[in-house]
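I hope you will forgive my troubling you with a question about protein structure. I set the record out below, with my sincere thanks for your time.
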Amino acid sequence: MQSLLIVAGVVATGVLLLAGVLHLLPKLAGPGRAIASRCTRAPGLDLVIVLFQVAPIVYGAIFAGWLGVAGAVLGQLLGYSLWTIAHELSHLRARRGPRIVSTLNRILGGGIKGRIRNHVAVWATALALPCFLTIRAAQIIVYPVLVWLLDFPRYPNAEWIRVSRQKFDGLIGHDLIWCLYCDWMTGVYSLGAEMLRNVESFWCPIRFDSEKKCANCVRDFPDVDGGWVPAGAGMADVVRKLEEAYGDGRREWFAHPARLTVNGEPVTQSTESSAGTPGAS
């Protein structure tokens, strides 16, 4: 128990100190603001996530095994809770104004009932954090292998993996920390889906046998209705589709125009105007 409390105290202190540094950086001239800006997008944001979410768990495990892991989680919860209280107390005007949390508490029944339903549900979403960390790790470790071996298109990760809701006026404390979580994981999910489209269409351009599944998946995988061969077709049809889609050296999912690359770099308006028809990645 002593080890658990020690780890919890160290982690909570570390969380609060790191949060303090992030608050301080934008107030510093020149280099401070530049560092703060880099911390809001990949790869700087990846480092921030590791320091807040991964490093405490690793520290706890090394210090006291599973008991230390439990202490690290407790310390994270304590640190985030104390930061939330302090941040809301330092923004009393916004705290008294319209809030996401108070509105949802009311929508969910009001009083203690609404508050419990809302807070338990939002904390339950934290259980998905390891899943999103794993997806992000795959984007950093696995996808570059496909770029190297298969000439898959490269993506500027910072266009997806970034946060900006801290700039939204009146978003404080509880609302801010959860909106930043959503801000981050939405980008992770979207970039992961974009990469997976390339993988699925490249290796398996075959429609699912279930039309219901096709209808469910077509929003995230447009090639379901944009070129994959019917489930009842033959392998010769699959081969023809692969030759048609990738025989010219292009590797983006079925030449989706918003994801074309030139010499391995994402196409922009200026690239298109200077390079003409986008070429292979």
In short: Confidence is low (pLDDT under 50) at residues 269-281. The chain has two domains: 1-90, 98-203+248-281. The longest strand covers residues 261-262. The beta strands are 261-262, 265-266.
